[in-house]
Amino acid sequence: MPNIGSIQLPDFPLLLAPMEDVSDPPFRAVCKDHGADLMYTEFISSEGLIRDAIKSRQKLDIFDYEKPVGIQIFGGDEESLSLAAKIVDVTNPDLLDINFGCPVKKVALKGAGAGVLKDVDLMVRLTSAVVKSTSLPVTVKTRLGWDENTKNIEEVAERLQDVGIKALAIHGRTRSQMYKGQADWELIGKVKNNPRITMPIFGNGDIDSPEKALEYKNKYGIDGIMIGRAAIGYPWIFNEIKHFLKTGEHLASPTIEDRVAVCKKHLHKSFEWKGPKVGIFEMRRHYTNYLKGLPGIKDYRLKLVTLETVEEIDAVLDEIQIKYTGYEFQKTPIELINYHEKCPV
Prior knowledge:
Blueprint: E1 14-16, H1 25-33, E2 38-40, E3 44-45, H2 46-51, H3 54-58, E4 69-74, H4 78-91, E5 95-100, H5 105-108, H6 120-133, E6 138-143, H7 153-162, E7 167-171, H8 185-192, E8 201-204, H9 210-220, E9 224-227, H10 237-247, H11 256-274, H12 276-283, H13 287-290, H14 298-304, H15 310-324
Parallel strand pairs: 1-2, 1-9, 2-4, 3-4, 4-5, 5-6, 6-7, 7-8, 8-9
Helix pairs in contact: 1-11, 4-6, 6-7, 9-10, 11-12, 11-15
């Protein structure tokens, strides 16, 4: 059982990846409903927390129904990360995660996120500073290396374990790859099967079907899987994978009634947590994914992204449900959306 400190997880946990502008409390709520075992906040700037930036502070919001849940921070300065860790400590999450994987320029080229992969000694110092500054279990999310010539994840895993982290999640791409090409799970498997590694190793990258989850579990021996893009607009993927791992059979695809109900819950929680203007605006990016596969849905989608009240959106969703009642969704691999300027690590 891959426990993290005192956090008890199932035998093969499924983790929701921290995704900037996606993994907020409304999205985490619907993923928790559908089988996510451990979730993380969007990544939070250590500098922003110290400056008391409103957006950074808001990302600290966690709720009892989400537990276990981790808060993820990033930064490239030991003192800032230490202070941020102390701030996080007070909010009482189950763990604190450090982001050493975000590849976008505004983070990586400022020496944070995946940028730290260019200097493993710095990464070790930053991690050690966080471990010493908090009573929480510390975990890390990172990538294989900066580029094809510097895939240093095996050294990174050993050295971070030595300074006290309790688990490591590895995205099977380099920073240079961003989200292009296939994730390389062979190196993730090497880290897991390194006899020096005793902490849980979670694999991340391109898991978009129950079959692939089972194949990678068996082939690479990882302790669990972290799912990011495949859960956007499709939180059902967690329970679908769990059911397939247990029985070898597929759950039925969510019906239009299921999709509308979850979309509405997501919308209402977004409205409640972010307020009417931001909550409705930021929900617009999710409708396409919830309604994917419905023939002739474009006109409805255009309506949904222009309406400005929850009541109007609910009415359109009700209309969609009535129109498509009985429609059978095809079981196809979930499309992995490329977020070029976002940061699902």
